[in-house]
Amino acid sequence: MDAFAPLPAADLEAALAATEAAWGVTITVRDLTGWLRGADGRPLLDPERNSHRRQSVCERGFAPACIQHCRHAITAALRAGSAAACQHTCWKQVREVVVPVVRGQALHGYLFAGAWRAPDPPPPGPWMAAWRRLPAWPPSCPEALAAALALLADGLWLAAERQRAAPPPPGVDGRIRAWVAARLARPIGRAGLARELGLSPSRTSHVVQEACGCSLQELVARERVAAAQRLLADGDQPVAAVGAQVGWPDTPHFTRMFRRLAGMPPGAWRQRHRLA
Q: Phi, psi (5° rounding) for residue 188?
């Protein structure tokens, strides 16, 4: 028998979209430990999938309380409790079904599905009209939805494992990018890549330019900024710690490089793209 190839990220998104359409919900996927990243460290899902701002009520008047309720509080509650499926109501009185992703004793993330209008009205704000348009809680069968989400989470976990176990992308472009991605926290130079490719240093420079469309130095900078953006959006590490983790321990240099490639300093980027 011939095994199926690992599902590409686009197909994982399609599976989530089909589930959303079947149940009439919006699904948010929270990754706490990197379980939904490929072998190169890149997310397997669209980063917007990790944000509640896809919900109309959540998008209006997004505030620090949104992060506190739908990131920190629910994570703490699931870790402290039995990590079972539950319902969660945020400070805007939006209710969702929450299904944790647990392996062994570790909480790796969770899936939200919703949203519904809780019985009590939210505090006044620009979200009121959107909140009134939500269907009232409960849905027809929240337990069945939770069971379907649990199966979906298991499928995402297996698909992510297969993605990480897949061989590097074919061609020299894939080899170069995989080599760089595996070494972001360390000094990266042409000599090491030349040894990896079995080429002379001068030939390596030409190959990188032809395959990736930029110099090795620029490719490393782009990959480091992309990795920093993921860390800034997903976690609470200080900017200096993020810079050091992606290979730029000099914070002013990290800030300059990030601003050049992302159009704003890392702190401002985090504020704009903070996920909840």
A: -120, 125
Contact 61, 106 (CB under 8 A): no
Residue 198 has pLDDT above 90, yes or no: no
Distance in angstroms (rounded) separating the CA atoms of residues 209 and 39: 23
pTM tops 0.85, yes or no:
no
DSSP, collapsed to helix, strand or coil, labels residue 30 as strand
Nearest to 224 by CA among 209, 200, 244: 244
Tokens (6 digits) for 274: 């903070």
Residue 112 has pLDDT above 50, yes or no: yes
Averaged pLDDT score across all residues of the chain: 86
Check the CA dihedral 136-140-144-145 and report its sign: negative
Sheet holding 26-31: strands in order across?
26-31, 106-117, 94-103, 86-89
Please, are residues 146 and 110 in contact by the beta-carbon 8 Å criterion? no
Q: How do beta strands 94-103 and 106-117 pair?
A: antiparallel
Question: Which contiguous run of DSSP H or E holds residue 222?
Answer: helix 216-234
Q: What span, in angstroms and rounded, lies between the C-alpha atoms of 111 and 152? A: 9
Backbone phi and psi for residue 94, each to the nearest 5 degrees, phi listed first: -105, 130
Return the beta strands (E) in 14-162 as ranges: 26-31, 86-89, 94-103, 106-117
* Fold adopted by 171-273: Arc Repressor Mutant, subunit A (1.10.10)
DSSP 40-74: TS-BSS-GGGG-GGGSHHHHTT--HHHHIIIIIIH
- Say if residue 233 is preceded by a cis peptide, omega within 30 of 0: no
The residue length of the chain stands at 276
271 band by pLDDT with thresholds 50, 70 and 90:
confident
CATH 1.10.10.60 placement within the chain: 171-273
